[in-house]
Design brief:
Blueprint (H helix, E strand, L loop, with lengths): L2 H5 L3 H6 L8 H5 L1 H5 L4 H10 L2 H8 L12 H5 L6 H15 L6 H4 L1 H15 L17 H9 L1 H7 L17 H14 L1 H18 L10 H9 L9
Length: 235
């Protein structure tokens, strides 16, 4: 498979890469570049070179997962490039080929799929109050833990319709709407992509010594959710 040719099939790549002249304005404006070992100028240069080996390394790297997709780069590029869109195409191809499992940040795609992805197609929300388990989110502190333990009463007091029928924040989404959401994911390839993320992640879990259990590799999910090698931030 020619990786560059695969990238050119993604409209985001076509729209994102016009003619990079390596000026570095995108890197200067990029919030992620300030904190991570990340340089959108270099990424644009690599894909523009059409070097298959370097593109493969990029697809397996931590680098493509640092972008926050704020699109600051789009507003400043004098040539009309958008590195953020190039990153979208690279991430998509990495997931399609299973290369995302080769990096720590890439492996976290499984956690995102199982929390955000499955919430959307089963509940109609990205994140739900019941997802904010204190043990998994220590940054929420004691107040967050108290809210989690008393969520029904808390959300009722602030006027939310938590898991209720009818209107209001956090309401239960009607089944008709949920069926439509699922159909959208199915037609656009989202369900197929979820299945590939699961498939490649399970292969990687086995390779790393994790075993499948009743919780469907819950130990592996916990591992990728909490592990940080400490090498991501700019020194």
């Amino acid at each position: 498979m020619e990786l560059y040719q695969e990238l050119t099939k993604d409209v985001r790549f076509v729209e994102g890469l016009k003619s990079c002249m390596n000026c570095g304005v995108c890197t200067a404006i990029c919030p992620a570049a300030e904190f991570y070992d990340y340089d959108p100028r270099i990424i644009a240069g690599i894909v523009q070179s059409k070097d298959e080996k370097r593109i493969e390394e990029l697809l397996k790297s931590e680098t493509i997962w640092y972008c926050g997709e704020c699109m600051s780069c789009k507003t400043r590029c004098p040539r009309g490039n958008t590195p953020g869109m190039i990153i979208m195409a690279l991430r998509s191809l990495s997931q399609e080929l299973g290369y995302f499992t080769e990096s720590e940040k890439g492996r976290q795609q499984l956690a995102i799929k199982r929390v955000v992805g499955e919430n959307i197609i089963s509940k109609g929300y990205c994140v739900l109050p019941e997802n904010l388990i204190p043990e998994m989110h220590p940054e929420q502190g004691p107040v967050g833990e108290w809210i989690y333990d008393n969520k029904e009463e808390v959300y009722e007091r602030v006027g939310a319709n938590y898991n209720g029928d009818g209107e209001g924040a956090l309401r239960k989404i009607p089944q008709e709407s949920m069926d439509e959401i699922y159909r959208i994911f199915e037609i656009t390839g989202g369900i197929d992509r979820f299945e590939k993320i699961e498939y490649f992640s399970k292969l990687k879990a086995k390779n790393m010594g994790f075993t499948e259990n009743e919780d469907n590799y819950a130990d592996y999910v916990s591992h990728i959710f909490t592990t940080n090698n400490g090498k991501h931030n700019r020194q």
